Amino acid sequence: MAEIGPNTRLRVSPFYEATLSEGVTAFSPYNSMLMPVSYGNPSAEYDRLINGVSLWDVGVERQVELNGPDAARLAQVLCARDISTCSVNQGKYVPMCDHRGVLINDPIVLKISDDCYWLSIADNNVMLWARAIAQERNLRVDIHEPDVSPLAVQGPKAEDVLVSMFGEQIRDIKFFWFIDAEIDGIPLKIARSGYSKQGGFELYLMDGSRGTDLWNKVREAGAPWNIGPGNPNPAERIESGLLSYGGDTDDQSNPFEVRLDNYVDIDLDNDVVGIQALRAVKERGPVRHQLGIKIEGHANTPGHHRWYDIYADGESIGSMTNGIWSPRLKQFIGFALVERRYKAGDTVTVNKEGISVSGTLCELPFI
Amino acid sequence: MAEIGPNTRLRVSPFYEATLSEGVTAFSPYNSMLMPVSYGNPSAEYDRLINGVSLWDVGVERQVELNGPDAARLAQVLCARDISTCSVNQGKYVPMCDHRGVLINDPIVLKISDDCYWLSIADNNVMLWARAIAQERNLRVDIHEPDVSPLAVQGPKAEDVLVSMFGEQIRDIKFFWFIDAEIDGIPLKIARSGYSKQGGFELYLMDGSRGTDLWNKVREAGAPWNIGPGNPNPAERIESGLLSYGGDTDDQSNPFEVRLDNYVDIDLDNDVVGIQALRAVKERGPVRHQLGIKIEGHANTPGHHRWYDIYADGESIGSMTNGIWSPRLKQFIGFALVERRYKAGDTVTVNKEGISVSGTLCELPFI
User: Fold this and answer.
1) Contact B10 A305 (CB under 8 A)
2) What is the pLDDT of residue A352?
3) What DSSP letter does each residue of B41-82 carry, written as one string?
4) CATH 3.30.1360.120 fits A16-61+147-237, yes or no
5) What is the ipTM for the molecules in this complex?
6) Smallest Cα–Cα separation from B336: which of B297, B354, B363, B315?
7) Shortest Cα distance, chain B CAs vs residue A37, angstroms
8) CATH, domain range A63-144
9) Are B8 and A322 in contact (CB < 8 Å)?
10) Structural contact between residues A310 and A114, judged by C-beta atoms closer than 8 angstroms
């Protein structure tokens, strides 16, 4: 492995210094920033998320703020899900598609006020995209990146930690809703959300100069529950069936092939980008669909960095997009993006860097 | 420094295996790919570029292909420079701006045929941008990323190396023009271009399965001139005054403030994105402008990863965007993006991670 460090095209998050103090050992770029991806002890990091509480620098989940009289209109135009029913202080997970109906992001849309929305984005330049659409349509909306950086507190003990800091109001936050909060003068929004299925919260830090302060406060408050550093966990998220935009999708992927059917509202107005293409896909059905894959008798192997071909009946039928050893299933598992006629239960072969291994397709999630 | 490796959101170039064999020691992400940025011997890498010949994996310079009856129209709409005079087999360096006239890329546009253009891009998702503009305007053009990855051969001996491989025709290639070529069945376009001022070429590999073959062939051909691995060199490019989009520009930078005046044609039609905003900037003059800065008596220090404030008359007047030790000037130099009333010759102070150092503004390039 080679080294990486920040440069003027690769920003750090407000939590960067804290993650260095915690002994971060590896980064991956995400939205032109450094995202911690290891602290050197994968099994402890996994256990903490499953059984305790884990603290993640996810400042790379940048916010694209839409602000102005046409902000609500633009937010809807950009999203293939009906967000007209979204309340202030509520978030919704939405597929964002291009004119072909191909996924270009899967943000959480947070409604800050009637004239202000945040798109909390996955790894792609949504600000560029939103500005193009807004300007081409002469919408009255300012689009910029506010000083907002999420810190995730994830795991079954996350709620107890936050209650100890912010009181019982934390327990009343509904899934994907958020409240305003403050601690020691640090302004926050706290949402019940996060890239795991273990429960937890995201603290949207609204003052980038206070990243280390916030990290240390959560660290101290979480000590009784043995909180420790972690990051979006590749094993847990695959076990839980969580999609990685850009990791499990390609330049042809529409929401229907990656299990986002329930988040697409095809009756939206035609000015929603991609909605006509999505109607056509829904009618004829997607070409591929995403299933799980369990690899037979495969030893514990590290994650891979390219899609592997999946074969059945002597021909390529799709790809294993990401795969990893599952500590809970004690098996190598992954996501399969395959032709729709192949189903859960079918036996396939994966060509994994020249080595053929057998696998079985299955429904998602794994756990 | 922490580790980095490829993953499914961070692709490798066709030259990746070759760079591993050469002993690459550090990567930086660029267009969601790994770009080699060090082979562990900075002074040898610099000397090779200045005095000999250097081989760079710049596969991260992705091509955005515009193909179809409206390809020429779209190419012009996206570029603030008149490209109507561009011939087939010619390239032009162009500022690409958003509707505010703010730089979003500075690609080389290569005219492949009357109906086909490649945008050889810097670090930003131009494909997303181009698709938004094309679709919103109903242009008949297909936009995709072809299987094309540049390999740069840079330095005063680069021409001799390529002549030894492809013959005397290489000497006739004019600056930014390109020819079709082939070696051992490897399809290429060869352009006289590259991100240095030491002369050289970029070999656009058109078959991603042949990256190692091409690397090795150039390596063998270059042996008499002591060719070796390198990468876009931060010291040489700053000495030479070459702009780094995203490194020396921010979300407010227009072409006029970063010395690209000569590449903007303000008389272009109003349907060119940003042209009206650029006319307004030209009329009133940009708020900031880019100069060089020489730091007084400053020891050899490593590159920095954030912009440093520049002060004069007791107040902040702008930023040092990138800076580095110049082996030829034997001085620490950098780029200054400062208010326009400050000029070459003015003495300023730079706040470099809490330490104040004196500097003098100067014209660019340094050499």
Assistant:
1) yes
2) 82
3) -HHHHHHHHHHS-EEEE-TTS-EEEEESTTHHHHHHHH-SS-
4) yes
5) 0.96
6) B363
7) 9
8) 3.30.70.1400
9) yes
10) no
